[in-house]
Amino acid sequence: MEELKKILKKFCIENLKTDSDWYNWTIKDEYLPRGIEMSNDSRIQRNLSLKEQLHSKWSESDDKTKEELIEYYIVRWGGIRGNKKETLDIYKKSPSQELIKRGINGVSSWSKALVLHDCNKYAIFDARVSTSLNYLQVINNTKEKILFPVLPSQNNKIKFANRKLKEISKDWKKVGNNEFYSLYLELLFVTAKELNTNISIIEMLLFAKSTDLIK
Prior knowledge:
Layout: H1 2-16, H2 43-59, H3 63-77, H4 85-93, H5 96-100, H6 107-117, H7 127-140, E1 146-147, H8 156-168, E2 173-174, H9 180-195, H10 199-208, H11 210-213
Parallel strand pairs: 1-2
């Protein structure tokens, strides 16, 4: 774990110093919830602002509006449309710790809900983030490799990389279903503190650079 912390810090230093708009996730303004306003800043800043505004609005809203905001972030912004209604209802209504107890099951969705609960405390964990964490260890040939959950993805490059990873990770230490998210947050918080930034930036960087890392 200590080795991975150093690798992640180095990775962030090398990539965050650039002025380029490396985060390629576009916000569709026509779907924005009422009361959320977006500037014409970079995609990085727009997405950071969106998280902060959604969290602020969620914190002061009634239950119905809270559920609508979470559904927007999972379905509209996140593009995850495969959840059954009853499953989506769980993500919209459950407290933070109950969502975390679900482990790998639906983490790409429920971690988005957590961001609205508190974007300074929680971060998204999805297939691209997981792939980056795993492949940083491959690239740097860490001595004690830790396997974060290999998640399904709609991206063909990520799918191929994860098939290869299953072949080469047989001797890695597996991160438990009830441990991986807390370890992930620990990595983010330690790195963010040392670099004087926030956990959202690091999560976004892991997401954005995943296909570069697997090359």
